[in-house]
Structure formats: structure tokens, C-alpha cells
Records
---
Amino acid sequence: MNGSKFTNLGVNLFKRCPSNPILTTFDLHYPANAIFNAAAAQVGGETVLLSRVEDLRGISHFNVCRSKNGVSGWATDPQPTLMPDRQGHPEENWGIEDPRVTWLEELGVWAVVYTAYSRRGPQVSLATTTDFRAYERMGSVLPPEDKNAALFPRRFKGDWLILHRPVSSGQDPAIWLSSSPDLKHWSEHTVLMETRRGAWWDAVRIGPCPPPLETRQGWLICYHGVRSTAAGAIYRLGLALLDLDDPWKVIRRSEDWVMGPQEPYERVGDVGNVVFSCGWILDEEMDALRLYYGAADTCMCLATARLSDVLDYLLACPE
Ligand code: BMA
């Protein structure tokens, strides 16, 4: 179904890797139910996927998977890399999920923002690492129900910025933007983008996906949108562009989704009809964008696009 004759559509931007899924539980050295929704980082000559692994109790932890080419030959940690810490961090009671990593040049660390599944619902936690082996927890930073948080790599007017998706009563669930002087205390909570209601693919819920990418044209955002149907929810991915100096301003938002479940591994799994991304890697020199995504809450997949095509597409979207 790829390769439509309509070339200017968002759904043609990303090409699925022919060897999808690129990572499954068969790549792990211990039994697990699923490996999905991994954060992605380029560390030296290696692609690192900090993957969410769901164990056979249903509780998630993280496993670091490394590959030279980012596609195959994955070396996965023989043991879980980061386990929920139920004693020290009771908010991690039911596991840690969906990490996003951002390199913070100013601090010389990777910030890992993840969902801590607490007894009161999902909340946002933060940890830092320099090597993806040892992690320093900062603990919970946003209360339940909140998840899908992603950090910007640098400060704006002295503050760090985070995208997140709190659950609020009332209409039009939204992606929010909040700021902090120290990564720990967040305030100035502002709505950035709302759901589009009715029949739209992103009518029911939207949330940040991988961390924002800085481009000359603005901050490139990938977000997930949910539509509920008689057969259940469908999770798809869309794009937006935020003003470079003023990321509170959305300058473009794709009307079409750019990735939706279509292949069997995206249609069928623990949660069918889900594509969900927590990480992407940009090679500016090669104009290559690698989007890593979880399929059907079961396995890890890869799709690639040219950054210039993505930006051309978005800039042609209505303001
Ligand atoms: C979202 C997140 C993801 C998951 C998706 C589909 O709310 O919790 O972890 O992939 O639902 O089940």
C-alpha cells in the first residue's frame, strides 16, 4: 500500500524499513512480553534505543539496545538496564514506560523523561545519564495524570521547556508546554495544541511523541493522535512546526497523519492499530531522519524520511 500515485501526501514521507520489525522480544536474553516505544540516541558510532520492555507480569522496565547501523545487529543488555524502583520511588509501582531522551549540552547529560505508572495513574519522571548504563533519578516532576513528556534540548529565556499531555476534564484534550528553571519545578503551564474534534484522526487525544528537533525552519514536532472507532482506538502520527525563538507559537500543523497503522505488524499485536514513537535521529549532513516507533505495543520498527521533504511538506500545510 506504500507508493501511492499521489506524491505530495504526508503518508508518503516516511518509508518503512523492509526488515521491520527491527527489534522483537526474540532479541532479548530473558523472557518478556513486548519491546516497544523506545527512546533513540546517536552515541558516537552507535544507535542506542532505550526500549520499553514489558515483562510477563505486565510491568515495564527499560533495556538498552545498541546497533552500528541502527537497523540490525542489535546487542541488547543481558539484564534489564533500568528497573522500576518501587521502594525509593513508589510512583514507579506499576512500572516505567515510554522514555524520551534529549541531550542537554549545557549539563553534559542525556535527560530521560519517562512515564512512572503510579497507583494514582501515570505521571512524569526524569532521570539523567551520560552512558546509558548508570542513571541518576530526579524523581517525579509532574503529577498524575500526565504522560508522554518530551524535553527541548536547551533553555528559552533562561528556562527549560517540556511538552506533555496532562489529562484534564472538559473538552479538547491538548498538548501542553511548561517551563522550569531547574528541570524539577515546572510552571507557566500553557496549551500548545488541541485535538481537532469530530471525525479527525486526532480528535480524541493528542500527545507529544519524540523530543522536538531543531531545524532552520523551526522546531519539528511529531505527535500522536487518537481516533476512537466502533472497533477501538487508532493511534497515528502527525507533524507540527513551532517557531524557533518562540516555541509557544505553532506555525504549521499537518492535516494528514504521516504514519498510520497499515502493515500487519502495526495492525495486530497486544494493542492493534497503534504506531507510537518516542525517538527519532537526525543526520543533518545526510538529510536523513530515522523515526523509530513501536508497533501495536508489541515490537520496534523503523521508518526513514528526508528532512528536507518533511519540512517542504509541512511548510506547504495551511498555517
Ligand atoms: C498510549 C501510551 C503508549 C501506548 C499507546 C497505545 O497512551 O500509553 O504507551 O503505546 O497508548 O496503547
---
Amino acid sequence: MLFDAPDFDAHEAVHFATDTATGLQTIIAVHSTHLGPAAGGCRWWTYADDAAALTDALRLSRGMSYKNAMAGLPMGGGKAVILKGAPKTQTFLQAFGRVIDGLGGRYVTAEDVGMSDADMTMIAGATKYVSGLPVAGGQAGGNPGPSTAEGIFVGMRAAVSHKLGRSDFTGVHVAVQGLGSVGGSLARKLAAAGAKLTLADIDSARAAALATELGATYAANDEIMTVAADVFSPNALGAVLTADSIAALNVAVVAGAANNQLAQPGDGARLTARGILYAPDYVINAGGIINVVAEYLGQGDAASVAASIARIEGRLADIFAEADASNRPTDEVADAMARKLIGR
Ligand code: NAI
């Protein structure tokens, strides 16, 4: 069930833990500690079954190894999933904190889908191996969304430069899917930089309100992936790039924050075959983890974090150049670079 699971990638350890008093059920996957403690957020989610939760933990933890390595962080990759069911009370979160504490620092948690900085504060009551806590102004850390959006902004600029030969966003048309913590912040940055925006969110009132605020247009949720634009930016769910959706894309660049955007291994090659430049998700969306790791290591103020996030632009430019030179899809180039860094 585990060693032959399709997404098992010689993970160093996979921990299954329960707490009967609070109803906690969690899976913590440690993919690699080659570069340092396995860092990656905790997802609180309703899964169809246990196997789906395990798959998520395995895939996401491997992605964190790649993401942290490519971001130049002294951290390995891990991820926790909590199976949604019992109420997420203080005692529940502290039980989760005790599970993390029992791993002795091999795994360090942070926010992911369904978890907030207030949740991290409660977890911190039971373990020191936690980041993404609320911080005072000027310090690294806190909600990673705006940092992630900054990384997407500079990474998209690298893609637009490489593919369209444009050095700025003036008049560049970006279709943004998902307007939450990352997508909303990104849309504001792009609007300020002169981009033309088409916005969509499953919460159509949110899309309409932001479009009014930014002087943008908004599209129906099921149309945003076929809008004729320069860039498609997925900032909602993963696995949105499928054989069918790639065939219907009407853009030159895909650059967004969602994790695991490619539904199948061959989807990067499909994008390349269509002449669409894909910014590998875990490279472009590293801004948030750069911020929370700086906080965790006690190594940074906001200015040094900003400088580190700015390096995403050059890193992507290198990947794009290498992909051109070797005639390979960008995701394969990035995966090969990441695996080399983690000694695989
Ligand atoms: P969020 O929960 O704040 O926002 C997600 C937005 O997408 C919401 O406005 C929601 O209504 C919308 N949405 C949900 N399903 C949708 C659908 N089917 N079509 C269109 N819109 C839909 O999440 P956040 O933090 O902005 O993250 C966005 C994505 O980026 C997620 O995939 C997340 O895993 C990824 N990510 C986030 C990071 C962060 O720092 N917050 C870091 C790295 C990746």
C-alpha cells in the first residue's frame, strides 16, 4: 500500500498518527532531509478516502523538497495533511503539535490550505517546530500569501521577457484564476504595473468586486482558461493543466501559484508542443516558503526576504534558457535541477 504507491518516491519516512481524545488523524510525509529539516505546510482537508490523503501527502512533500532546494533554502521537504472531521479546537491543534514534536525537528510545519497563522500559534503551544506565526511589522514571517504573490509577479516577468520580449507589464493581458490570498495580491500588483486583467473566481462576487476596484474585466469561472490573453495565471486549485485544458488554452505563458498544476507527467511536454512557456509551479511559488523559513531560522528582516524572493526571476530565466538549449520542457529541466540538489 505504501512502498508500491504510485507517488512513493523513496520518502525517508511517512508518519501516520491519531489522537483519540480529539479525533485527530494526520499523515506527515518526510520526503527528504538531505538539505535540512523537512519543511512544508499542513493541509486540513476532506479526502475521499485515506488513500487520497496519503497520495496528497506523498506528492506535496516531494514538491516541497524540490521547492526548498530550488529556492536555495537549507531545508528538506515534508508535508502534513490532517483529515478533516473532528473540530479544529485548541486541544486538537495541540495534539497535532505533540505529534510534530515527537519527530524531534525532522519536520517543521507552517500554514497550507485550511490553516491560519492563529492555528500555528496554537500548535506552537506544543512544539517549537512551527513557522508562519504572526510577526511584528518589518520582520520576516507571517501570512505567506503576499510573499508568494511577489514571487509570482517577478517570475511572470521573467516568463513575459523570455517569451514575449517584454521588459514590463504595460498592456500585457493576464487571465487570473483564483483571487484569494495570492491571486488577489497578484492582481493588484499587476494592475499597478499596467497589465490588462481578466479575473475569475469560483466566488463570482469576489471577482466582480476586484474587477471594479482594479478597472479590470471578469470572466465566468469556466471560461477563464480559454480567454485569449498573453498569460494564464492559475492561483486556485492544482491539476488544472490537463490534456484537454492545455489544448484549449489561448495564451503564450502559464505562470501562477497553484501547487501541482500539471495533472499528468506528460503535460509539461504538451505545453511545450503548443509553444506555451510554463513557469514550473514550485519554482515560481516559493516566495511564501522563503518568508516563513527566514522567520523560522530567525534569519531575516523583510528586506532580506524581499531580496531572496527577487532571485526567483533569475532562477526562472535560467530554467527557460536551459529548456531552450536542451529542447526539453521547463518542468523536466526544473525537476532535474532539483533532484541533483537533493542528491537523488
Ligand atoms: P486562498 O484560499 O486564499 O484563495 C483561493 C481562491 O481560489 C479563493 O478566492 C477561492 O474562492 C478560489 N477558488 C477555489 N476554487 C476555485 C475554482 N475552481 N476556480 C476559480 N477559483 C477558485 O488560497 P491562496 O493562499 O491564495 O493559494 C492559492 C493557490 O496557491 C493554492 O493552490 C495554494 O496551494 C497555492 N500556494 C499558496 C501559497 C501561499 O503562500 N498562500 C504558497 C504556494 C502555493
